[in-house]
Amino acid sequence: xxxxxxxxxxxxxxxxxxxxxxxxxxxxxxxxxxxxxxxxxxxxxxxxxxxxxxxxxxxxxxxxxxxxxxxxxxxxxxxxxxxxxxxxxxxxxxxxxxxxxxxxxxxxxxxxxxxxxxxxxxxxxxxxxxxxxxxxxxxxxxxxxxx
Length: 147
Known about the structure:
Elements lengths: L4 E2 L2 H26 L13 H25 L3 H5 L2 E5 L7 H16 L3 H4 L10 H6 L1 E5 L8
Antiparallel strand pairs: 1-3, 2-3
């Protein structure tokens, strides 16, 4: 087994930026599926339908992260940057942990990003949501002979 090491902040942020592409595609497809229900309006007018649409988009985003972390330990962006989220035992987060990690990551981001920057001060490069959920993000080593 090849050694792994904690992912540096810059790689994690690069993976997060990369994840904006599949998230944008997911939101476009999700919105397109709603068009028949909204009379062809891409964004429903303000009011209850607007709130329902925002909730729908939030659920798509949450689902993307939760499903990716649970199923393979990686989002598309994490896969591109050879990162993986895992529990302290080295396994993929279960659904409960992935849901909690997503919720805690919102706190990390909305606290003016302090929860993300915390990785610079943590000896294991963990962000707040990693610490709170017992997860970590590691760099997957390159295999010899593979591109």
